[in-house]
Design a protein that fits this description.
This protein is α/β, with parallel strands linked by helices and 1427 residues long. It has 50 helices and 25 strands. Strand 22, helix 47 and strand 23 form a beta-alpha-beta unit. One of its GO terms (cellular component) is membrane.
């Protein structure tokens, strides 16, 4: 039976790699897909381009005619019906259009190809700048949701075609099917555009040259040739514009479809065993963008063969067989492009692996930044990140050199072709005329645009070839399978029959390995892959487990750390691989994790899982349903003891919560997670130790009011380390080494006198100390009666809405600001500084100037040589005879030839130097930018990370750095050489026709006018695009982190919808950025068309007065203007737009303020080398607030801790316990007051020095991806013997010793191949190694079982006997043997004394916490030394 009420996405496996049939689900049913596809066909008719081509994504014309896709058939009348609906305006898209929604490219054909539809937007940008509201909306046919369905179906069909084996399926074929007809349309437009360029040079330019050489030619012939040059230029412009529009919209569709499908796949994965956070972020952001750009530029590749074939025929006709030498040069160049692309694919693939690791490491750091700061590990991670960066840039250098070689072809290849042809012609002793040579030169330069286009095409083709295998690698990963078995007994909610499961995909023949390993009592963690792997991913989770859970029962699950308690829940959730046995579930699921998943949203949205903002639900909900939802929300708040917490928040439930609940305490996060489950109102509740992070009073309230109260009719599987609650469960399951060793009622298990009875008798007495009486008393004062609570719901909601409207204190994260105006000069200077300084950049610029200058000199010298002819003076206006034109007869032939060849060699040498030097300085800039950004970001105070979404920061380190590495150097380089080439051409034309400078001045005026419209718009659009990426990255990151929770609650569809919306909003500025360039390009190419006409007329009207050789040279260079002029101007503006990424990086570098500034003079490092020696701590009138606009959390507290004293810190949630650690580690600087350690003010010590001298074991255990040794000793300060000794004292030695790799074993992301308890013990081992004088324990044993807790407490007492220890604990027995206990409430010290003195005082708060009727003494609780 499929689990009811859960996300259908998580219940399907259309893309899994295992063999077998591929099952469709409702979300991806063929009927729905086919219908949506035909709907798309109808909507697509609105596009003039698509109407002309009659193409639809992934469908052949035959399929369109038949109304089918692949093998699926639909009703042929549906299209006609949809057309009728479209005419009636009944479709959603039409309704949106009727209500004034602005879609892009909605004009006629001319408006589309000329980008005229963008003009109103550009005018608005010129007047006031642009913001989000000014941008157009994406066309429904281009939306991610529609295209994800299309792409998913094509991928599914490809898998079916290969017998269900996704590994053999070709993602390339799927992409080709998806874009096939549209991309063919693009290729057709490219071929037409190249044909017009060829006709321009072969017909118009050659005709003008012949006219110039013929003194008797009629004027009208010259005018016709001049007009034809203009018309060919305009036709080239139109066809290229049509190509770019079709390609850009195709790229948007492909990007949206693929990225949306990737996120759907992530939500179906069993876990991140074979991928990482960094890789997924890169796939969705960088690889998605590369697919888009690839669709735009890859079609340009096909233009080369067309113009090459035409050029071969034509040049052979005019120049003879010698012309084939030049054509051979181009052919070899084309082949070389393939070879260089292959090399770039290799370098790019290697570089992306390093990029994934770097981004993953930074993502991990952002997630665990508090821990890194408390341990002062920033320098350690900086070395790690810099090493990854160096390896990444080594591959980038190779990539950039190959790219530079390709770029140099633009200058070098035409010259080589001309030189080789002329030298071969001279070698054959054949005569050369200016008419022949200059026509040949014009054709060669017309092929230069082919080179530029080919380079772009191959560049982005190489990126696609790298991205496709990376995307496929994720798509073929194993998915969660749906539970299809029905329960045998309908009174059971869960049935597990002989289930053996592993965390990774182990085949059944490995079951024996699991059996053998699980039988060994000293192995808690098992090596995978038959002992040959370096990680733990294949460790068996469960072994031969049979469990039946009755409906409506409360079942407790207990066991030691690493025993398999969490594995049991994850197996029910299908997060593990089932090796043997079967699972059946009857009912819908709710789940709370040991590490709660809290989203960057309001508290209310976290509890309702965004129910308040689910538009579909809100529209369909009636008033009664809303009231019921509101009552359910407040009931969930009450039973999870959140009423007081919400009342204390500035905007109540509308208060914004930071990522991962950064502004909530550990206990609050657990209670929000539990409230989410209660609000969901499911049949089965899987609760993973929700009581461990809350104090005794709150735990008792949650158990009584929630677990045993509101959920009493539900089926609850409660994993807990709080043994006192097991006696109240209907049934108890005891797990050890992945096996169920005991199962039954509390009474039965106690009678059996086995492991359960031993645990309860040994450790249960301390956990029986609750606070029933205290809670009853406190509830009268602090809690609202249920009836009163529900009665006041409307009032509270109104207050929250008022606060929401005012948008004040409840907002934690500020919107990302968008800069206005031009990119500042300081940004360019900063980049030049990081590249090596102004002098280095000037030298590079000089080499760039010399490259086109040397090439221009080579061509000018050739014209001079041809003009000289045989050296015989020209006879007036008469045509030169063949003897007069024969340069072989010139007495200075060798001089002309040698200068020509030497100038050619100089071009080669200068280009080579330019490539190497430019790569060197841009690589230096990339490394220095990243290093400075890292230093500045990770030296920020915690306030920055609390109020800045990690997606925003990760955006800088991923996409912005990617642009700094690739796009900025590429744009800057291309802009330089194109501009200088155009400038050289203009100079040559003016030398021939001096009056042309007037037209250049007019063009400059037009250019200024267009730029004043274009530049502000394109700059703002690029800035908006940069900003729009951050929410997408943050959403992807949050989805990956909360994958299990999202799927368990069936919220996958909502998260996918949000992803689709973010993809669409981020696609809009990307599309506008590209089409905005075409807006400028079209208008500048019109200017070039006019220039072609004027130059042609100049040749006509200066007939017989201008040397034919120089006139021909001017005409040849005019061909180069076509495309190159607008390309150079466009690239200059695009370079400025690209520099917005550098602007964003340098903004962080300049603006962020590092932590540690107290205004006090820092003590030298040499003065604190042995500090602290004793560990005395004095807190004097300490006040602390986390931010200026937040209330004070520590209100002038004062206390003193003696050397080696053990202090227990207790108090209810929010009393300020953890804030003491925050102040001690200076994560937040104190508002007033001081903390002295050994009589030294900690504010006068450098902040990292302070943190490195104090150790902490945090409430949430942290492990990083890498080796276990790195996690314990990242600075490599300790010997192997010392590390093993620390593991032995924390009872992890046997577990680690049982792994073949031992200390070198790989730790998975978030340490998820260790249980939470094991991670906590490893954190304790880490603290033991540091051997600090002062140790702070923040709920260090909250997640371990009672027996391990007892052992750990013994270790803490013995190993840290010479240390000052401050312990925060909810388990009171862990602090009752302390020297003194500090009791806090609302940021103030209520009492501080020895446990005996406090317990002897009947009015003490500590005594109230233990006033459950049990006799308590310090001696009774001092049992931790027993094993």
């Amino acid at each position: 039976m499929i689990i009811e009420g859960n996300d259908p996405l998580s219940m399907t496996s259309p893309h899994r790699a295992s063999e077998g049939d591929i099952h469709n689900d409702e979300g991806f049913g063929v009927q729905e897909r086919s219908s949506s596809l035909e709907d798309q066909t109808v909507i697509e008719m609105d596009s003039q381009i698509d109407t002309a081509l009659s193409y639809t994504d992934g469908k052949t014309p035959g399929e369109l005619k038949d109304g089918r896709i692949g093998e699926q058939e639909d009703d042929p009348d549906e299209t006609e019906q949809l057309l009728d609906k479209r005419e009636e305006g009944d479709t959603e898209e039409q309704k949106s259009s009727n209500t004034g929604t602005k879609y892009w490219a909605t004009g006629n054909f001319i408006s589309v190809v000329t980008s005229q539809w963008l003009t109103p937007l550009f005018r608005a940008a010129k007047k006031r700048g642009l913001n989000d509201d000014d941008l157009y909306h994406i066309l429904p046919v281009d939306s991610a949701e529609k295209n994800a369905k299309i792409f998913a179906q094509l991928w599914e069909e490809e898998i079916k075609h290969h017998g269900g084996n996704a590994v053999k399926a070709s993602l390339r074929r799927v992409i080709l099917r998806f874009v096939s007809w549209r991309i063919l349309g693009c290729m057709l437009m490219v071929m037409l555009s190249q044909m017009t360029v060829f006709l321009l040079s072969s017909v118009s330019i050659r005709g003008l040259l012949q006219y110039s050489a013929d003194a008797t030619a009629p004027v009208y012939r010259g005018i016709l040739y001049a007009v034809s040059a203009m018309l060919f230029t305009i036709l080239y412009n139109i066809t290229l514009g049509a190509n770019y529009f079709i390609a850009a919209s195709t790229g948007v569709r492909l990007r949206g479809g693929v990225v949306a499908l990737l996120l759907q796949k992530v939500l179906r994965l069993r876990g991140l065993h074979k991928t990482s956070m960094g890789e997924i972020v890169n796939l969705c952001v960088n690889d998605g963008n590369r697919l888009h750009d690839g669709m735009v530029f890859t079609p340009l590749v096909v233009g080369a063969p067309v113009i090459f074939i035409c050029a071969c025929v034509f040049t052979t006709y005019i120049l003879g067989k010698s012309a084939l030498i030049g054509m051979l040069v181009y052919a070899l160049t084309y082949i070389a492009q393939f070879a260089l692309t292959g090399g770039k694919v290799i370098y790019r693939a290697r570089m992306m692996k390093e990029t994934d690791q770097r981004v993953h490491t930074i993502s991990e750091m952002l997630t665990n930044i508090k821990f890194i700061k408390m341990y002062a590990w920033e320098d350690c991670f900086e070395r790690k990140v810099n090493e990854l960066r160096r390896r990444e840039l080594r591959h980038l250098v190779g990539l950039r050199i190959l790219h530079g070689i390709q770029k140099s072809f633009n200058i070098f290849v035409p010259i080589v072709a001309v030189v080789a042809t002329i030298m071969f012609k001279l070698f054959l002793k054949e005569s050369l005329s200016p008419d022949q040579v200059l026509t040949y030169l014009a054709v060669i330069y017309s092929m230069r645009s082919m080179l530029t286009m080919t380079q772009y095409g191959f560049q982005y083709l190489s990126d696609i070839l790298v991205s496709i295998p990376r995307i496929k690698n994720l798509l073929i990963q194993d998915e969660m399978l749906p539970i299809t078995d029905s329960v045998d007994d309908w009174s059971n909610a869960i049935e597990m029959n002989s289930v053996s499961a592993a965390w990774d995909d182990c085949s059944k023949d490995k079951k024996t390995q699991c059996d053998t390993a699980r039988d060994k009592e000293d192995h808690d963690v098992i090596d995978r892959e038959n002992g040959s792997s370096s990680d733990l991913y294949g460790a068996c989770a469960l072994n031969d487990v049979s469990v039946a859970v009755k409906k409506g029962s409360l079942v407790g699950v207990c066991g030691s750390i690493g025993s398999g308690k969490t594995s049991l829940l994850h197996t029910i959730l299908q997060q593990t691989h089932i090796l043997e046995g079967s699972i059946a579930v009857s009912g819908s699921l709710a789940y709370t994790s040991q590490q709660p998943d809290i989203f960057n949203a309001t508290l209310r949205e976290n509890i309702t899982m965004f129910g308040d903002h689910c538009e579909d639900e809100v529209e369909n909900e009636n008033q009664a349903e809303r009231v019921h939802s509101e009552e359910r929300y407040w009931e969930a708040v009450r039973v999870c003891c959140l009423s007081d917490d919400i009342a204390a928040l500035p905007c109540g439930g509308r208060t914004e919560i930071g990522e991962r609940g950064i502004n909530l305490s550990g206990g609050q996060k657990h209670r929000v997670s539990l409230a989410r489950a209660v609000y969901a109102d499911r049949d089965i509740y899987l609760l993973d130790d929700p009581l461990s992070a809350v104090d005794t009073r709150v735990a008792e309230h949650i158990y009584t009011e929630c677990i045993a109260g509101i959920l009493k009719e539900k089926t609850v599987l409660l994993v807990t380390t709080n043994l006192q609650y097991l006696s109240k469960c209907d049934e108890v399951i005891v797990i050890s080494n992945g096996r169920v060793i005991e199962q039954g009622t509390h009474t039965q298990l106690m009678t059996d006198e086995a492991e359960y009875a031993r645990l309860l008798r040994t450790f249960g007495s301390d956990h029986d100390k609750t606070a029933d009486d205290y809670i009853s008393k406190q509830n009268e004062d602090e809690s609202t009666d249920n009836d009163d609570l529900l009665a006041n719901c409307s009032t509270r909601t109104l207050n929250e809405e008022d606060c929401l409207d005012e948008n004040i204190e409840g907002q934690l994260v500020d919107a990302e600001t968008q800069k206005q105006g031009a990119v500042s000069t300081g940004t360019y200077l900063a980049y030049f500084k990081y590249a090596g300084g102004i002098l280095s950049c000037f030298l590079s610029l000089l080499l760039y100037i010399l490259s086109p200058a040397s090439a221009a000199f080579n061509n000018v010298w050739l014209s001079h040589w041809l003009s000289a002819g045989s050296g015989i003076p020209q006879n007036g206006t008469q045509l030169q005879s063949e003897d007069e034109q024969d340069i072989l007869k010139n007495p200075e032939f060798h001089f002309f030839r040698d200068v020509y060849l030497y100038s050619f060699l100089s071009v080669f040498v200068i280009c080579s130097l330019r490539i190497v030097y430019y790569v060197m300085i841009t690589q230096r800039a990339s490394f220095n930018l990243h290093r400075s950004l890292y230093k500045q970001v990770f030296s920020c105070p915690m306030e920055f990370f609390d109020t800045t979404p990690s997606g925003r920061v990760l955006n800088r380190f991923s996409r912005d750095i990617d642009e700094a590495d690739n796009e900025v150097p590429n744009a800057l380089e291309t802009a330089l050489w194109t501009f200088l080439s155009v400038f050289a051409g203009i100079v040559i034309v003016i030398m021939v026709f001096p009056w042309f400078i007037v037209f250049v001045a007019i063009i400059a005026i037009v250019l200024v006018y267009l730029s004043r419209m274009f530049l502000p718009a394109i700059r703002d659009i690029k800035r908006i695009e940069n900003i729009k990426r951050s929410p997408l990255i943050g959403h992807v990151k949050a989805t990956v982190e909360a994958q299990t929770t999202i799927r368990a609650f069936g919220m996958g569809e909502l998260f996918i919808k949000r992803c689709n919306k973010l993809l669409d909003t981020s696609a809009v500025p990307k599309m506008l950025f590209l089409m905005g360039q075409r807006w400028l390009a079209f208008r500048l190419d019109l200017c070039v068309a006019v220039a072609q006409l004027l130059l042609g007329l100049s040749v006509v009207f200066t007939h017989n007065t201008t040397a034919a050789a120089f006139a021909g040279l001017a005409l040849a260079y005019s061909v180069q203007f076509l495309g190159t002029l607008q390309f150079s101007v466009r690239l200059i503006t695009i370079t400025q737009a690209r520099f917005t990424s550098i602007e964003r990086i340098t903004d962080y570098i300049k603006r962020l303020i590092p932590e540690g500034g107290t205004g006090k003079k820092h003590i030298l490092k040499s003065d604190v080398e042995s500090w602290p020696k004793h560990g005395n701590i004095t807190v004097d009138s300490l006040q602390l607030k986390y931010r200026d606009n937040l209330p004070t959390v520590l209100k002038g507290i004062s206390f003193h801790v003696n050397s080696k004293e053990k202090i227990g810190i207790v108090g209810r949630t929010g009393s300020g316990k953890s804030s003491i650690a925050v102040a001690l580690f200076r994560l937040v600087e104190a508002t007033s007051g001081r903390i002295h350690i050994d009589d030294l003010d900690i504010g006068s010590i450098r902040i990292r020095e302070l943190r490195s001298r104090i150790s902490v074991i945090p409430q949430d255990p942290v492990l990083f991806t890498g080796t276990l040794r790195f996690n314990l000793d990242p600075y490599e300060q300790y010997s192997g013997a010392q590390i093993w000794d620390a593991l032995d004292k924390t009872y992890m030695k046997k577990s680690i010793a049982g792994i073949q790799q031992q200390l070198e074993v790989r730790v998975r992301e978030n340490g998820s191949n260790f249980s939470t308890g094991e991670r906590q013990l490893l954190c304790l081992a880490r603290a033991l190694l540091r051997n600090s004088t002062i140790l702070f324990l923040d709920e260090a044993t909250a997640t371990v079982d009672a027996e391990t807790d007892s052992l750990v407490q013994s270790t803490i007492r013995t190993a840290f006997s010479n240390c000052t220890v401050l312990t925060i604990a909810h388990r009171l027995h862990t602090v009752l043997d302390s020297d003194r206990i500090l009791v806090l409430d609302d940021g103030t010290v209520l009492e501080m004394d020895t446990p005996a003195a406090l317990l002897a005082n009947p009015d003490s708060r500590l005594n109230a916490l233990l006033s459950s009727g049990h006799d308590v003494s310090v001696n009774q609780t001092n049992h931790c030394g027993h094993n």
